[in-house]
Structures are given as structure tokens and as C-alpha cells.
Amino acid sequence: MIQPLIALVDCNNFYVSCERVFRPDLLYQPVAVLSNNDGCIVARSQEVKDLGIKMATPVHQIKHLIKRHQIHLFSSNYTLYADLSSRVMQSLEAYSPHLEVYSIDESFLDLTGLCSHTSSRRNSIDYALQIKAEVFQNTGIPVCVGLAPTKTLAKLANYAAKKWHKTGGVLDLSDTLRRDKLLPLVPVNEVWGVGKQTTKRLHLMGIFTAHDLASQSVATIQSHFNIVLARTVQELNGIACLDLESIAPDKQQIVCSRSFKRRLTDEKELIGALTCFAQTAAEKLRHQESVAGSISVSIRTNPLSQTDAQYQRSGQIQLKQPTNDTRHIVRIAKRLLKEIFKLGYRYQKCSLQLGHIQPETQRQQMDLFSVSEQSSDSSTLMNTVDHINRRFPKAIAISAAGINNDWQTPVNYLSPRYTTDWDSLPGVT
Amino acid sequence: MRPIKKPKPSIHGGSRAGSGRKKGSSVYGETTKAIRVPESMLPTIRSLLAQRKLQASIKTSSDSTPSLLPTLNLESLSIPAEEPSSINVPLFISKVSAGFPSPAEDYIEKTLDLNDLLIQKPAATFFVRAEGESMLGAGIHPNDILVVDRSIKAVVGKIVICALNGELTVKRLKHIGDEIILGAENPAYSDIVVREEIEFVIWGVVTNVIHSV
């Protein structure tokens, strides 16, 4: 009988590593990457972690540390990260026919039958080291590999491989003896799928480590919590309950929202912002070949302001005819905004949400009396727009989106798009 | 007139009844067929075949444990994405006269894709832009685009991109031993001897130069 073997390959400090690929001068320097509007820290190099700076710390709280330790800051360069991510995943594809891309920086690989910890001919550790070496050689991104018979244990193995440098970045938890040694050392909140609230309740029950959780009876956990956590208990004991999902599920909901740099008071400016959101959202929708069945818009003032009058409202419409046409979505978003907009308030945030998303092919047939808002030329036109915008970013936009959008949030530390723009290639002397 | 001699039927060579591999006796437990495949897909296909082989061997040894094996799922077979930037240039085998509806369209043989020529391994291939004149002798001019393959092993004689004290530079790898020697291809520049105290990492190997004229 062959024991299942799952590998979790996870990139180390992924966003930071991406920036460092093209900035070898920062290899041993403290580096941090900031969130969408340069507000919080979302990725830290080891040097920054060692300074005690936590994930999601607001930048303004650590200005003194940034100055004193000369921390290099970067705005999120998602174009660069997405490109390097796909290179990492492509490199991994050579190592298993069954791969689940779990997030931008981690993948599960099914290695069952390809190698094992008991076989000296094709040792699992050697195989994992080879994966690690090839990803780094191809992309310059360092990774750690966790191996185990279940996904939850593979996650745990990866956590341990990252935490304890003695592992060399690779750890196999196929062996129950090794599991018995490691699990008592891992806090229960580090177990995959155990969140903040669950951790609190587990602590009350005297469950503090992964080992404590693994020793619970499945029935007890299921009655106190839910089937999901019961499965986690089984997975921690080496019984696989979660399959690899090789096809990522499509997004069920697309949300675009931004806080504005300055407060907006004019309806026209809000229309401009909404139009931008609609363009982005509709493009995402078309990319996954879906249509949206509902659209909602919400606006609000700054709830933290002592002086501003407060206002918050949202509106939603169910569409008779699901759509992915930017023009149609913009038209409806405008109509919704008209309903909820009130003059005299200083708006800080606006968002657009597309829901009831379904595959384009399943689009329902129109009833006899409704007039199609989606003309037959629509998809051809939208495809052309997408195609042009891919080659010449932001070349075609709906006119209401405006050209000078000074409400947009600042990005002060953006690195060049080294791999996706001919004018931004790294220079070599 | 000489009579035409019929060649004698040879008793050597040819197929003999009952010879050769038995039908379905391959390692996959079924008949096999030779096909040509793109080189870039080799690793994917090989690992897929290895799986199939394993499945076949397990199946023949015991039929009770197939559920533990990863299922052979063709949809999970990943094919490297086509470069979105690639431009296909049709190659004609006859000349086309301007202003006349082209009769040559029937003769399109295939399209040439520069990516085929310049890129062996898309996941590991990066472009960088040359600055400076240290590599003029190797045909690398300022502003040229260099195609860099990170997956190729840097050996003596290769032109490499390396990070030298934190800066990306292009040089020829001249010697690897106690010390590493990087050579410029321009008499105005001297060789660089990489001593221990210098931060040095090889970043990739240059495979092609794209030069505008």
C-alpha cells in the first residue's frame, strides 16, 4: 500500500523576495512591502521580522524604526508578483502531474508514488531539495517545502521548515515518530484553518498545541465546533480528508473599493471613481468568463472624523439579464449612486460589488418580453477593449472615468514592472 | 531486348510471424504509439507517463488498492501558456504583390514565432537592458536587450549576468577556481578578479542579444 504524500511549497517572504530578485543590493538589507495604499506592512524580510515589526502594522506607527534601521519600503507591485508567481508555479509543474495553486505564493503538489521517505532510491527529502533548488535557480525566489500524508500536516511541516533553519527548508512529516516530536511544539493557532475565535475557545478547553488538538476525539470536536475542525483533527493524525483542487474555483464575488486621498463632495467625482471600479471589475469578470447577476454600490463618510457629518448608504440591483459589459455595469452603478447620493457630505470611501456570478455559458435565456441590454456586438467589443488594454495598459477607458484622478491613493515606493514592460527592464552595466 | 528479371523474393529480413512485442505487453499495459512532442512539455509528459506506468504496475499486481493512487487527470495537465506578447509572422512560399488580393494565402506553410528561437524555458527566461560598452566585443551594445536564461549552468566561457557588490553586470566568465575571473570584451576595460570579500552571485546566463540597427 502506498502512503499518500503531499508537498506544500511556499515562497519565503514572497513580495520581498520578488523585489530582491532585481535589487541584489537589498539581499541582506531590511525590506518591507506596503499594502494597496501604502498604509500597512504586508510583507517583511527576516531583518524586519527580527526588529519585532508585526504583520499589518500601520506605517505611521513605525516611522522612527524605518528611519533608524533604514528599512527599504516598496509599494505593492502586483504586476511583478503575479509574473514571478506564475514562473514559480510553472517550475513546479515539472515535479507533479497534480498541482493545486493555493495562493499567489504557495502550491500543493501530489507526490504520491513519485517518492517516499522510506525509499532510498527516490528519497522524498532529496526530491523536495531538488524542487527547492530548481525554483530558486529558475526564478531567484527561495521556497520551503513541507511533506506529509495530508494537506494540514504538509502546511505544518512547511511552517516548521521555515521556523527551524536546521531543517534546511525541507521537512517530511510522514513518520509518526517525528510528528509526535513536533506537534507539541506548535501553538494550536498555527494549525491550518484554526482562526482567532476558534483558538480562544480551544484555549478555554485546555488545548494549546497542535498535539493537544490531534489528541482530541473527532466526535468531541465535531460536537463542540464543526465538521471542518473535526476534519482538521483527522488530518493532523495522518488521515487525508482534503483533496487537491487542481482547478481554482472562480470568484463568487468581485469587490472594488478604495479610500480616497481627499474627501469627495461632488457626485461627478464619485461617478468617476465608480467607473474606474466598474472597468476593473468587469475586466476580471470577463477574464474568468463569467457574468454578474447583481450589482451593488456603497458610499460612506469618514466614521473616525469628529467634525464631519456622518452618512452611509448602499444600494443593490438584481439584474434580469446577467452581464459583463463594462458600459452596462457603469450605467447601473450610476443609477444606483443617484439613488443613494446626498449632497453636503464629505465622502471618504466608495465601493462597487458584483455578485451572483455565474459562468457566461450558463447565462439564462431572456424571457419573451425583456429587451436585451446586452447587444450581440457587446462581447466582441469588450474582447477588443480587453485585448488593447492588455497591450497598452489603460489605453481605452469609459469617458466618465476621467483622466486626472487625483482622488486615487498614492503609491510612493513602486518598483518598475521589470518583467512585463519593455521600458522597465532591469539595466546591466 | 533483354528479358526483365524479376527480383527474387528475399528470404532475409522482413517480419516473421509471431515475432516482436506482444500486444498490450508494454509497461503501460496497453499498446503504445510514438509521437513527437514539444521539448518544453517533456517533463510534464514524462511525469504523467511515470504515473501511468505506476498505475499499470499496481493494477497488475493487486487490483484492490487503486483508490490510493492519484487519479490520472488530463485536465490537470498544465501546458505552458503561450506568450501573450508573441507575434506570429506568416512565412510565404510565394511573393505577394501589393494591391492585389493575395492568392498566396493558400500557401501559408507555418508561422514563425521568435519565442521559439530565443526562449527555451519561459519560466526561467528574463530580459535585461545593456548599459555601457564593456561587452562591445561580444556584440553587446548599449541599449541592447539581452535574453537571460537562469536555468542554464554558468560555466567558463559563458556570458553571464551577475550581481557584483549589489549591482547587476554582464561579463564573460573566464575562470572558476580559488578566485573567479570576469572578463570584459573591450580593451578599455580590465578583468575583474572576484575575491572573497566581494559580494558575488551569478544571476543568469545570456543566450541572445537583441540589437536594433
How would you describe this structure in keywords?
heterodimer; A: 429 residues; alpha+beta; Alpha-Beta Plaits; Dna Ligase, domain 1; five-stranded antiparallel beta sheet; globular; B: 213 residues; seven-stranded antiparallel beta sheet; two-stranded antiparallel ribbon; 9 strands; elongated
Oligomer: heterodimer
The CATH architecture assignment of the domain at 6-11 and 93-236 in chain A turns out to be 2-Layer Sandwich
- Give the % helix of chain B: 10-25%
**Count of DSSP E strands of chain A?**
14
What would your notes on this structure say?
The complex is a heterodimer of chains A (429) and B (213). Chain A has 429 residues and is of the alpha+beta class. Among the domains of chain A are: 6-11 and 93-236, 2-Layer Sandwich (Alpha-Beta Plaits); 254-391, Dna Ligase, domain 1, CATH 3.30.1490.100. Chain A is 35% helix and 20% strand. Chain A is built from 14 helices and 14 strands. In chain A, the strands form 3 sheets. Chain A has a 5-stranded mixed β-sheet. In chain A, helix 6 (151-163) links the parallel strand 7 and strand 8. Chain A is globular. The termini of chain A are far apart. In chain A, 39% of the residues are buried. By secondary structure, chain B is α+β, with helices and mostly antiparallel strands. Helix content of chain B is 12%, strand content 24%. Chain B has 2 helices and 9 strands; from the N terminus they run αββαβββββββ. Chain B has helices spanning 42-61, 114-118; strands at residues 89-91, 110-112, 125-130, 145-149, 159-164, 167-176, 180-183, 192-194, 200-210. Chain B has a 7-stranded antiparallel β-sheet, with no helix packed on it. A two-stranded antiparallel ribbon of chain B has the order 1-2. Mean pLDDT of chain B is 76; it is low at 61-85. The interface between A and B is large, with 42 and 49 residues.
